[in-house]
Protein: Prepilin leader peptidase/N-methyltransferase
Organism: Sphingopyxis witflariensis
Amino acid sequence: MSVLNALPYGWGVGFAALVGLILGSFIATMVLRWPAGRSVLGRSRCDGCQKPLAPWDLVPLLSALLSCGRCRQCGARIDPFHSRVEITSALIGALALAIMPGLSGWLWALLGWLLLPLALLDARHLWLPDRLNAVLAAAGLLLAGPLMGTLLLDRWIGAVAGGIALALVAWAYRRARGAHGMGGGDPKLVAAIGAWLGWQALPLVLMLASLGGLAWALVTQGKGDQPLVQRRIPFGLFASIAAFAAVPLWLLISGR
């Protein structure tokens, strides 16, 4: 980390963007393969002709640009999801280091990179894998202290309080309506976010996530057959975005 801290400002931003591109390529592959039961670590193949891709076909973003978004062997269109995730991941790194240079910025970028696959899986499949939630929580408890100046005890309290709070909300909804209103992964995700940010910033995260989910529901209410109260909202997506956004907001609000 001392080497990363020593990087000049522009180099730090650029290097974080490059790291984000590389991680984004893996994240996109994981999000596409894991729900389908395919190996995340298997050889990459063209979705059209199923031929293995050469190393020069796998350079994040650049390969897609040079091949005009098509397989060099059969001409099939490459799913633009790969490039979109790579760009998003690069922007996470660049934004984090641009706003918070040094160790705090790298930790903020790491939080964003760990949240990204969870957000995408929830948005596409309403699925928040326990293993990813566990990795996020463990990284928060072990590493996140310098990010917002939180003590380990604060992060433990945040993890426990966040998980219990969301579990109680889910239980209350189920008791009131007789149906599940929240997936089992949502309380675990909020617990993992609490392990990163501590209990102090959790109300801000939950408020932002709730507002995001409500806005999404209102904007999309005319695009489905189900009534608004019966529509499934990817709360994990909005919780992930809220957690990433809450870092600079909470530091600004708390004057740290």
